[in-house]
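Run log, item B.
One chain of 213 residues. Sequence copied directly from the ordering sheet:
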Amino acid sequence: MQRIRTHRRVVEAEASWVSCTVLFFCTVYVVLDRDVLWSAFGVAALSLYILPIVSKWDPFQALPWEMTLLLSSPIVLHISEGSRALSGSIDWWDNITSISFALSFATIGFLLTLELHMYTDVRMNRSFSIFFVIMFTVAISGFWQTGEYLSDVLVGTDHLSSNSQVMTEFLWATVGGLVMGFVYGAYIKAMPWSRREVLGLIHFWEVPGWKKG
């Protein structure tokens, strides 16, 4: 049994590190490309990923691979927009990017609740955690759109082509935040105790009555 748990821990960490490596190189790319907004996104995501590992000095204390994959997906899609074969021939490519972006922001909001529990005296029950993730996603989307507008005005970029595009971004952010808020609420509640222990998520406790199996 112990061998199975050790093997699972190693596999979980390896899958997570692969996703993080993709995120790292994409962040380096946007930094070298002087893409300020996406550089800030990449640095923030990497910081949330590294904090549990550095604080515990344990390379296996990596975030779940599925969360890391969601964190890295929007920046990968953003870079791929430079490919005309993708963005030019696939009509719904921008919508896929917007959805991925919303899911990633929701993941960052969820990780903030997790790390607040781990490193501060803040305690949230599941209902408030869901609310926090939803509001964080919508709020950050608003700040992001403001940043893109300022970039278009001051630097001459072309992030926002129309008001319709801005409203579509807000719509996907709201939908993504709502969906992922409830998904992450169910995700932590349903996660077996053994996996929470392997991933270091036992710090994210709930009100009494949380399942341990």
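Observations after the first pass:
- Confidence is low (pLDDT under 50) at residues 207-213.
- The helical segments are 2-32, 36-56, 65-80, 84-87, 93-119, 126-154, 163-190, 193-199.
Flagged for discussion on Thursday.
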